[in-house]
């Protein structure tokens, strides 16, 4: 009976996960304006993994800094670093190593650089294109210790994969608009 209950719970979670990804995909594909798109990605990521804060930082052309382009909730802007080095913090580590980080007690992680003092857990994934080129990072944080698990990591990675496609589409649209203007 307990195995059956566990199976049913997993099936419900999987269905919920697939519905969430489908909703996010629909929403992102229809948005071509970069700022709106990035704000939607962050908001949905925060909601789906039940985080308290999220941000998207895109890699600048010098490949040494990440620029915060979107964050949620919006009132956190004053406390978020606008630009950070890829040598700094968990987000920098994720960008530099192109690997995700799931940290359930950031106060014990030497990589952590406090931008929001009251956060306890962080989940950060790289935004990588098909050729493994880094576009940036998607980061979520929570006030609770042990807030995230491997399922949250997988979900955030899937959101990041959708985000990369949507970001590239928005960039292509911007280039097309510039070309038409010229």
In terms of DSSP E residues, the strand content is: 15-25%
> How many angstroms does the end-to-end distance come to?
68 Å
Report the strand count: 6
Rg, Å, rounded:
17 Å
Low-confidence stretches: none
Overall SS class: alpha+beta
Residue-averaged pLDDT, rounded?
A: 83
Total of helices: 4
Which strands sit side by side, in order, in the main sheet? 3-2-1-6-5-4
Q: What composes the largest sheet?
A: 6 strands, antiparallel
Q: Percent helix among the residues?
A: 40-55%
Described by the principal axes of the CA atoms, the overall outline is globular
Order of helices and strands: HHEEEHEEEH
SSE topology:
Layout lengths: L1 H28 L4 H15 L4 E7 L5 E8 L10 E3 L3 H9 L3 E3 L17 E8 L5 E9 L7 H32 L1
Antiparallel strand pairs: 1-2, 1-6, 2-3, 4-5, 5-6
Helix pairs in contact: 1-2, 1-4, 2-4
Question: Overview of this structure, please?
Answer:
By secondary structure, this protein is of the alpha+beta class. The chain has 4 helices and 6 strands. The chain has a 6-stranded antiparallel beta sheet, with helices on both faces. Strand 1 (53-59) and strand 2 form a beta hairpin. Helix 1 runs antiparallel to helix 2 (34-48) and helix 1 (2-29) runs parallel beside helix 4 (150-181). It is globular and about 65 Å long. The chain starts with a helix and ends with a helix.
